[in-house]
TrEMBL record:
Gene: cobD
Protein name per Swiss-Prot or TrEMBL: Cobalamin biosynthesis protein CobD
Transmembrane intervals: 6-24, 54-79, 156-175, 295-317
Membrane topology: Multi-pass membrane protein
Domain of life (superkingdom): Bacteria
Known role: Converts cobyric acid to cobinamide by the addition of aminopropanol on the F carboxylic group.
Subcellular location field: Cell membrane
Main subcellular localisation: membrane
Family according to the record: Belongs to the CobD/CbiB family.
Amino acid sequence: MLSGLSFFAIAWLMVAGVVLDLMLGEARRWHPLVGFGNLAIALERRLNRGDSRFLRGALAWTLAVLPLAALAALLIWALNIQAAQAAAHAVMLYFCLGLRSLRDHNLPIADALAQNDLPNARLLTARIVSRDTTSASEVELTKASAESLLENGNDAVFGTLFWFIVAGGPGAVLFRMANTLDAMWGYRTARLLQFGCTAARLDDALNYIPARLTALSYVLLAPGLEGKRRAWRCWRAQAPAWSSPNAGPVMSSGAGALGVRLGGAAIYDGEVEHRPPLGAGEPATGADIRRAWELVARATMLWLAVACACAALTRYVHA
């Protein structure tokens, strides 16, 4: 592992990072990712102009990500005290995780729908997705929230944990910065198509293995043997239809595990986009948002349990 930590240490630092995230949630002030987002906005405004926008986008990605990832690694090295280094790894992971944020942003939507408060549900959903929710129905709002939960479970949790295993705190920092740039620059618009190409492709590469491990986690946690088979079939049949190589496996397997239908038409910038279907079964309702959150939470516990079991096994083997 690039972090230099033992697997035993990594496993328990993963637990510490997740516990910190669930206890504290997002930092309300001076969150590092908010500052990084402001840096990304400034770089895009400064460099996304004139000719050679692809090269300018690659330069912007390099200037945004690599110095800060190197600074995180340098901080770990400079502490030079094992306990302080361990604490720094755990804190970096905490700042990169978004498990509680997923809960805090999505469960209020489920509560609003349970109270038949569509205006509030539309407002809350508009805060987490880019699609138009102005006149969205309960089914459309549920699809938006559940899809966001399943996909961002990979981005904000499992991808972060994967790269933490590989390279400790600096690995988690690098992944989340790359993922943030994709979320900001990776749109296929006239302005960002060339400039954001590097951000989109590198995020695809960094997410390739985590996305498939996430999809596998959703399959394993589907209820019953038939639920697992359904989640697997949805993954294999539906994921190739999605333009994103990573969102397809994650959302199709997750929808299959829940036994609901997601995907389909959604309105973006006033235009109806007909997206491929996801999952199987009945149309999603408001209660399925909570079920999607529970699937992501249980998958997180599965990852931690597997990591701790592997850590205990390696310690036993080397004892």
